[in-house]
Amino acid sequence: xxxxxxxxxxxxxxxxxxxxxxxxxxxxxxxxxxxxxxxxxxxxxxxxxxxxxxxxxxxxxxxxxxxxxxxxxxxxxxxxxxxxxxxxxxxxxxxxxxxxxxxxxxxxxxxxxxxxxxxxxxxxxxxxxxxxxxxxxxxxxxxxxxxxxxxxxxxxxxxxxxxxxxxxxxxxxxxxxxxxxxxxxxxxxxxxxxxxxxxxxxxxxxxxxxxxxxxxxxxxxxxxxxxxxxxxxxxxxxxxxxxxxxxxxxxxxxxxxxxxxxxxxxxxxxxxxxxxxxxxxxxxxxxxxxxxxxxxxxxxxxxxxxxxxxxxxxxxxxxxxxxxxxxxxxxxxxxxxxxxxxxxxxxxxxxxxxxxxxxxxxxxxxxxxxxxxxxxxxxxxxxxxxxxxxxxxxxxxx
Length: 398
Known about the structure:
16 helices; Tetracycline Repressor, domain 2; single chain
């Protein structure tokens, strides 16, 4: 899970295109605090203009988000253009495009995370362009990997490409202090390390889409029914896109009865978070309690975490995406839980690989976790839990 650590001061922003500058500032704020939490006044203040002046450039906040994602789409499209595919051999072209993606992520660290949640708030045309730009990047990396490693099964090309790009994009999910050089070198090594790994055959019969959490039966408690019913709506539409009445209807509980169990929607969300934290802790502790030496403990932790993400993808997705909407006290408490989970991974990694220390250890741990998150929670799964375990170890070994 992501930790919140103060990052070093960002480099000065470009002063050329005022509209682009405002959009990038807004994208940074959206990713840090949540789309609904950020107001136009905050964006204007950060951009150094008055509130009314922002309307000279954008009619509303939705238009700013659309512009920011279009700007990021254009940057991705430039990476995949024929002119950008430089290098004498497929291997050189593959390394070059990974380096270019790393450069983009390092430059826009605070806003790259748009790719994980933007679909909730964009119109269909803007969303389609953004999705197409990401898909085109995956396609180009997969195509080049196929030329470099022609003996790999075709399906593995795309799996490895997706995992490598998720590892690189992980820089946007945490605030570990890193110099631009350290981040660039570390992410490039992780991305190329993932592309070089091998995968076991994918198991037949694995579902192509994540299954929803099992519904609580009619004889289950109303509280449990509400918790189960909230997960998929929160995941698909976001905290602000769902009402308590929506959740009540999904749980078969109508009217004011919902509020007898949770005073507010934020309290219900907090209960979901504590449920996720408790289940994850119980799952990982049970897996590692008898594992023995650090290498075995790390293997069991990876297996348990990947299994949890695949089995409880709705719960895990909400746990990762709605943090800023928690009540303040709950947010601070759960932040400590998330940090401790990351530190557990870091301690094990440094015990197993003594040459991996400090900020780099956290960099590769977050890269590994982001691979799990993106591949297990994708609306159409292209891999299974066994393959993801291999991808995690490839990232950790970088």
